[in-house]
Amino acid sequence: VSMGRTLVELFYDVVSPYSWLGFEVLCRYQHIWNIDLRFRPAFLGGIMQATGNKPPAMLPKRAEYMLKDIKRMAKYYQVPVQISEDDFQRVLGTGTLGAMRFITAIDMTQPRYLEPLSREFWIHFWSQHEDISQPENILAVARQAGLSSELAQKLLEMISSPAVKNRLRETTEEAIKYGAFGMPAVVAHFNAEPHLFFGSDRLELLGSVIGE
Fold first, then answer.
1. What is the pLDDT of residue 92?
2. Comparing C-alpha atoms, which of 137, 62, 57 is closest to residue 96?
3. Which residues act catalytically here (predicted)?
């Protein structure tokens, strides 16, 4: 971290539409605020399991509210999340472990692609409603993000390696250690201590805490 800059870590999983909203807002603000933004791909399933949390959409009233909420936020932040009732079932039935391992592999090897690749996964999953657990779809996402087919193929082979699996597990455990119980989990390191903010609707508060 350069002098005087606040390190802000964003723990996210592409299964989470709120993570996409938080990601895009922080991407915009990283050039306005005095922050070093660090993307930390983690696994939401692992966080849910460790903390006994459940997907919010499993509560019917909350699911009803979430539909409206995400639509409003998508419009306000100009992020193309497309959400309908069917999505809740679709999301519960789709594992993002492979996608998050793929994103972890790019973070370990070519981190400059981390932002565009993560964004492309959200676009394919939340705008185009594709099944991103399928290897051919993962490769298509990688192509859209500007990765060569050689690199994409190499990363796909890496996702079953212990190094990638361990890295994703460690990042997930780190988020839990900071107190995360869902996503996005944003951790600002300010005045020598970590400050956890949950969700994409606490970013004004984050700015206020770090003096922005």
1. 74
2. 137
3. 16
